[in-house]
Here is the input.
Amino acid sequence: QKEVEQNSGPLSVPEGAIASLNCTYSDRVSQSFFWYRQYSGKSPELIMSIYSNGDKEDGRFTAQLNKASQYVSLLIRDSQPSDSATYLCAVNPGEYGNKLVFGAGTILRVKS
Amino acid sequence: EAQVTQNPRYLITVTGKKLTVTCSQNMNHEYMSWYRQDPGLGLRQIYYSMNVEVTDKGDVPEGYKVSRKEKRNFPLILESPSPNQTSLYFCASSPLGHRGYTFGSGTRLTVV
Here is the structure.
């Protein structure tokens, strides 16, 4: 079983819509959760971090965490073509503060 | 500008010829890590370091070496590269492992 799972997509949404990206993880004691955005040929860029259950909002982005169900999601409101990228979910499992485990990523395409 | 700098950006080499990819960060971060990214496999951790002279293996350490003699530098050494090490490599740093990593621009390595 993969430690961090994401639907590879592509997820296609029209411009202005809400894009919903999901991620599940296997290690119940995971403490830290991150969403990275990666444009083609570029390095991953940290866009959201979340550490406790519930929602965390930053501009058009909302991260949601449910530790009981072991999932984390990212909502992108008012999606723009510039949001088209691969979104990587990353989890810091257990007590290993140094280790960051990534999902394979979801490709998002926002069509104008 | 706060950043992680990797060099070179592109490298083509032959099997068995030792090479070093350099990584430097100017943010005084404690944690540094090397990842490789392959299609369909996502980002996988090669080695990480929690401080000077403290390094440990990640998920795919075979064929790689690292050193952390100074806080800012974390070079990746391939003593005898093989074609299966052809990949996109990222260096990353973090002030604390559970706060997410900042990534360098990447090094695309081809071993022929």
About this structure: Chain A touches chain B at residues 31-32, 34, 42-46, 49, 88, 90, 92, 96-105 (CB under 8 Å). The radius of gyration of chain A is 13 Å.
